[in-house]
Amino acid sequence: MERYGGLVARGYDLLSGEPLYGVGRRLAVTALGLRPGERVLDIGCGTGLNLPLLADAVGPDGAVVGLDRSGAMLAAARTKMSGRPSVHLVEGDAADPATVVTAAENGSFDAVICTYTLSLMPDVKAAWDAIGDVLRPGARVAVVDMARPTGRWAWASPVARLACRLGGADIDAHPWETVERDLTSVRSWSRFGGHVQVRVGVRR
Ligand SMILES: C[S@@+](CC[C@H](N)C(=O)[O-])C[C@H]1O[C@@H](n2cnc3c(N)ncnc32)[C@H](O)[C@@H]1O
Q1: Model confidence, pTM
Q2: For a Cys staple, 175 with which of 12, 19, 105, 118, CB 3.0–4.6 Å?
Q3: Residue 43 Cα to chain centre, angstroms
Q4: How far is the CA of 93 from the centre of ligand 1 (A)?
Q5: Which of 40, 117, 144 to mutate for ligand 1's pocket (most ligand atoms within 8 Å of CB)?
Q6: Which domains, from first to last, does the chain contain?
Q7: Alpha helices of the chain — where are they, by DSSP H?
């Protein structure tokens, strides 16, 4: 059964901890340094919390493609982004190369962002390989995901693990480690005792 079905999609924006997790998405979008006219891919875009930020950054001459396997999450994103013709939403599996090529439609991407999505995927390498095929050389890449909080945030670890489990994420997956190997000029940030991890770099 789809974990991100109708009920979850309807409540997602309220219940997903945006005061915490929004910090990572805003950091990543800023660090991508998107320019007007660029094409950016949002992997596992969900209800589209990144999409307004991305669409504003690339402007009306750019393109934002949101890819997600949940039709219900995409429906929420579609509502959020109605009247923004630069945003295109595609339903499918990001680990399926044919789906990702379809999402690219007419050209490769200047940038890709994956926020709180790769840790849900059983085979991060397969997804990253599929995504890599539609990035232009030198494309910018942002990964935002979760790890166990430590230090003065360690008390929150049981809550963080439970939240990840309920969301279908593996808190110990550390998917940025797979992606980083193919990047140069990597910049990294961590917030809330390392619970929110952000990596932004340039694809080799
Ligand atoms: C925790 S939500 C994150 C949504 C959004 N990126 C955000 O920052 O709010 C994870 C999303 O990833 C999507 N997802 C998980 N695995 C996927 C896959 N293999 N292909 C495409 N989307 C996937 C889910 O449907 C869900 O919408």
Answers
A1: 0.96
A2: 118
A3: 5
A4: 10
A5: 117
A6: 6-203 (3.40.50.150)
A7: 6-15, 18-32, 51-58, 71-80, 97-104, 124-132, 157-167, 176-180
